[in-house]
Design brief:
InterPro entries: Flag_bb_rod_N, Flagellar_basal_body_rod_CS, Flagellar_FlgE/F/G, Flg_bb/hook_C_dom, FlgE/F/G-like, FlgG_G_neg, LlgE_F_G-like_D1. This is Flagellar basal-body rod protein FlgG. It holds the Pfam family Flg_bb_rod. It is found in: Bacterial flagellum basal body. The chain contains two helices and 19 strands. The protein is α+β, with helices and mostly antiparallel strands. The protein folds into two domains: 115 residues, no CATH class; 135 residues, no CATH class. Strands 8-7-14-17 form a four-stranded antiparallel sheet, with no helix packed on it. Strands 11-12-13 form a three-stranded antiparallel sheet, with no helix packed on it. Helix 1 runs antiparallel to helix 2. The two termini are 20 Å apart.
Length: 261
């Protein structure tokens, strides 16, 4: 009976949906986390009688035909690229990106990764790094005797010194933009890698060519909407239960068939 296999695909799809929701809720406090959503598509259809087929009985064409669906599959787990709310922290190396764009960081293997997590730190050598120790690209070093750090919306990093009136420009942070942000590969640690689907990064100054600007002393919160996630969780649970009931009903029907004398 096809109903057993079809209901099984439905249960598997709802299980995947619950896993995506679970990951969203687990990351509702993760800086700059983008919520994910499971997208589904129907499977192939069995053409019992194709639309337009000539009816052998009277020679007329069937207006709709008979197409029996074979279930559902996970088509994609897409990323919501909407920006999370900005939260004031007061940290001089805390940066939020207002608008599109990603900070570029260097991985230990020499490749580049991209992040919207602007909770930057200063390494033992004074280099600006992420929480996991990855240097920003281009690298910027803060002198040991710097009294204060200021970063303007255009990404220019200045240091103030006790013996100088004017702040000194240390370097400029850039942002990377992508044609298809949803095509980026998440690698954990709030980092993303470019893929053929995302396109190559276009590097430039903040505020140019559609890229966002930097806001010092703020961090971007997670874009997870807890109320919507709980609503989706209830919906997924009900969908799972209904597909389980289909399997129970199909099993009972098969049992009734085998008992016919």
């Amino acid at each position: 009976m096809r109903a057993l296999d079809i209901a099984a695909t439905g249960m598997d799809a709802q299980q995947t949906r619950v896993e995506v929701i679970s990951n969203n809720l687990a990351n509702m406090s993760t800086t700059a986390y983008n919520a994910r959503r499971a997208d589904f598509a129907d499977l192939h259809y069995q053409q019992v009688a194709a639309a337009g087929t000539i009816n052998a009985a009277d020679g007329t064409a069937l207006p709709t035909g008979v197409q029996l669906g074979l279930g559902v599959r996970v088509a994609a787990v897409s990323m919501d690229i909407g920006q999370g709310a900005l939260q004031a922290t007061g940290g001089e190396l805390d940066l939020a990106i207002e608008g599109n764009g990603y900070l570029e960081v260097a991985l230990p293997n020499g490749t580049s990764a991209y992040t919207r997590d602007g909770a930057l730190k200063r390494s033992g050598d004074g280099v600006i790094v992420t929480s996991d120790g990855h240097e920003t690209v281009p690298p910027i070093t803060i002198p040991e005797d710097a009294r204060a750090i200021s970063i303007n919306p255009d990404g220019e990093v200045y240091a103030s010194f006790n013996d100088e009136v004017e702040p000194q420009l240390l370097g400029t942070l850039t942002l990377a933009s992508f044609v298809n942000q949803k095509g980026l590969e998440a690698m954990g640690g709030n980092l993303y890698l470019e893929t053929p689907a995302s396109g190559q990064p276009v590097i430039g100054a903040p505020g140019e060519d559609g890229r966002g600007t930097l806001r010092q002393g703020y961090l971007e919160a997670s874009s997870v909407d807890a109320v919507r996630e709980i609503s989706d969780l209830i919906s997924a649970q009900r969908g799972y239960e209904l597909n389980a009931k289909v399997i129970t009903a199909a099993d009972q029907m098969l049992g009734a068939t085998t008992q016919i004398r």
